[in-house]
Amino acid sequence: MWWGHQIPAWYVVSETNGAIEDHTPFIVAYNEEEAQEKAKQQYGANIQLEQDPDVLDTWFSSGLWPFSTMGWPEETTDLKTYYPTSVLVTGFDIIFFWVARMTMLAGHFTNQMPFKDVYIHGLVLDENGQKQSKSKGNGIDPLLMIEKYGTDALRYTLISKVAGAGQDITFDYNRTNDTSESVEASRNFANKLWNAARFAMMNLDGKTPQQLGKPAPETLELCDRWILSRFHQVVRQTRERIQTYGLGEAAQGLYEFIWGDFCDWYIELAKTRLWKDAQSSSRLVAQQTLAYVLEGILKLLHPFMPHITEEIWQTLTQATDEVLALQAYPEVDQGAIAPDLERAFELLFGTIRTIRNLRATLEIKQGAKVSVILQTESEEERSILGSGKTYIQTLAKVEQLTITPTLTEEIGQVIAGVFGTVQILIPLTGIVDVEALYTKLEKNLSKVEGEIKTLTDRLNNPSFVNKARPEVVEGAREALAEAQKQAEILRERLQHLKGL
Fold it and tell me: For 39-65, how does the pLDDT look when each residue is reduced to its tens digit (9 = 90+)?
């Protein structure tokens, strides 16, 4: 592909006067030899040619790109095979300058449109919200972000924010903003996946997913069936979203499944089984399910985070002459999808979260076990809670769990929470001194409010903001935000304890 190629026009000048004037005749030809022949035929042998010094601009040249790179104007094999293509990915700012020219030139020279779809994304702007420009010298070097957060984190953020929403985002190297926080969150996501994969492989006895095999349906426990249902739901959603260019939605859906369903819930549910006797059939099924879903996750996420997924997959599968990039993308197993089971686990997880929040309010130590009463008039909900009783007791550190349709007995002082139509109660007798805890939280709140006042006064002082180093000012802002968050949590806990 030529860039800025010289205009194929040759001016016919005399031997005695080589100056080019407005009325100087010219010849257009494919090359100088052809121009010479044409000029001799029209003006005789005693002529001199000089090619126009101007060049065709970049936009004209790039307008020819879709077909000229395939060997056009010859009817090459590449042209027949790869032209027209399916999709062009571009920013909205060059729709007229580039995309329109490509369609017009392609239509004129080939009688075909060069692509079926145009996928339009947003732009990455500089810290002042200006478009990057060579003339302005405000180009953003992605290597700085890569050095700080990693290649996959930056790639995932751009797919989520720019390609997904199709909106502009602003990068600022010197200050924390929404974009840098998003890249940091993407890095944390990569770390989460890495640690989850490391835990899984530590508990697979050195075996690969292929060696373990896929678990037989009749051997699956309730949580295995749930994670497989969620996995295949996400496979279906991801494939559909990619096919309809919903790349941001696909990325976000994978984030929620991997971080939430797989890491925070299934791995925690599987731990007790993985730590059982090596000959336990329950342990084997947990290993099989864990390995199967982990490998599927790596395949699903590979287009979004290619480096970390390739690295993990190579270790997980012990591949020697294969790469993840060439593996088939996961297919949906409709038979594994169980919407009713997924709704049941939403109830179980919501109940567990509520118990954990109540424990946090009471500042009950993580290892301490409590008694919990779950009350709901719904027979279906009681059945679901009963089937997941072991999960509730394990993940919420519950020693005695009572599931009842009504509260008929006097149960003394309790702290209560609600999830849906399920009332969740923790009896307080022998667990916590509510008055002492209330006093302690009040003192903590007073201390945090003092920190908030000090930081606020400092940031409202123009002398500090203008004279202090930028990182010091930014540190003060972050400290203020953290203190305000702590104060909000303490106020919520005090409000909860006030009625006890």
Answer: 989 888 878 899 998 888 778 878 888
pLDDT of residue 166: 67
The amino acid occupying position 440 is K
The neighbour count for residue 278, using CB atoms within 10 Å, is 7
* HEC letters along the chain: CCCCCECCEEEEECCCCCCCCCCCCEEECCCHHHHHHHHHHHHCCCCEEEECCCECCHHHHHHCHHHHCCCCCCCCHHHHHHCCEEEEEEEHHHHHHHHHHHHHHHHHHHCCCCEEEEEEECCEECCCCCECCCCCCCCCCHHHHHHHHCHHHHHHHHHHHHHHCCCCEECCCCCCCHHHHHHHHHHHHHHHHHHHHHHHHHCCCCCCHHHHCCCCHHHCCHHHHHHHHHHHHHHHHHHHHHHCCCHHHHHHHHHHHHHHHHHHHHHHHHHHHHCCCCCCHHHHHHHHHHHHHHHHHHHHHCCCCHHHHHHHHHHHHCCCCCCHHHCCCCCCCHHHCCHHHHHHHHHHHHHHHHHHHHHHHHCCCCCCCEEEEEECCCHHHHHHHHHCHHHHHHHCCEEEEEEECCCCCCCCCEEEEEECCEEEEEECCCCCCHHHHHHHHHHHHHHHHHHHHHHHHHHCCHHHHHHCCHHHHHHHHHHHHHHHHHHHHHHHHHHHHHCC
d(CA 392, CA 270): 13
CA distance 71 to 68: 6
Low-confidence ranges of the chain (pLDDT < 50): 1
Query: What is the Cα–Cα distance from 389 to 483, expressed in whole angstroms?
Result: 38
Peptide bond just before 73 cis, omega within 30 deg: yes
Q: Extract the tokens encoding 430.
A: 């022998």
Side chain identity, residue 33: E
CA distance 483 to 497: 21
pLDDT of residue 1: 44
With b meaning 16 or more CB within 10 Å and e meaning fewer, what string describes 372-391? bbbbbeeeebbebbeebeeb
CB 287 within 8 A of CB 201: no
Which tens digit of pLDDT belongs to each residue from 27-40? Answer: 999 999 999 999 98
List residues bridging with 427 in a β-sheet. Answer: 414
**CA distance linking residue 149 with residue 172, whole number of Å:** 14
Rounded to a whole number, what is the largest CA-CA distance in the chain? 119
pTM: 0.79
pLDDT digits (tens, 9 = 90+) for 197-254: 999 999 999 999 999 999 999 999 999 999 999 999 999 999 999 999 999 999 999 9
